[in-house]
Design brief:
Blueprint lengths: L7 H6 L8 E6 L2 E11 L3 E2 L5 E15 L5 E7 L3 E4 L4 E16 L8 E2 L13 E2 L2
Parallel strand pairs: 1-9
Antiparallel strand pairs: 1-2, 2-7, 3-8, 4-5, 4-6, 4-7
The chain binds nickel (II) ion.
Nickel (II) ion (NI) binds next to loops.
Length: about 130
Amino acid sequence: MTAKPVNLTEALASFDDVYSPRIVARMNDYDVRIAHTLGEHVWHVHEDTDEFFLVLDGRFDIALRDAAGVETTVVLNAGDTFVVPRGAEHKPSSPGGAILMFEPSGTSTTGDRYSGEIPDHVDSTTGHELR
Ligand code: NI
């Protein structure tokens, strides 16, 4: 256990790669992760877990695709929160921003499955330690 607080502004300033989450805290069996966002992510699904987002800075959009292939996009600005339900196919995109995520430890950024190619700027990871 550490008695040191984590400051999110400082934590975000400590790295600049996008879509490459850093774990700022663990709580029970969950991670609190932060990431810079820019550009298109990849369509993916988390079969067994919901995924919580809080936009810290900028704008972050989440496209959702239902079983019939119908897409809707949720537009999120700083201060907005949103939960992607388990099993929902989704693809984040952003003109630039930063987010905080809350999800079970071990959850992959590209889901249990994804469609197409993972772009070079998207890190397929279960999160990195904050340094
Ligand atoms: Ni996701």
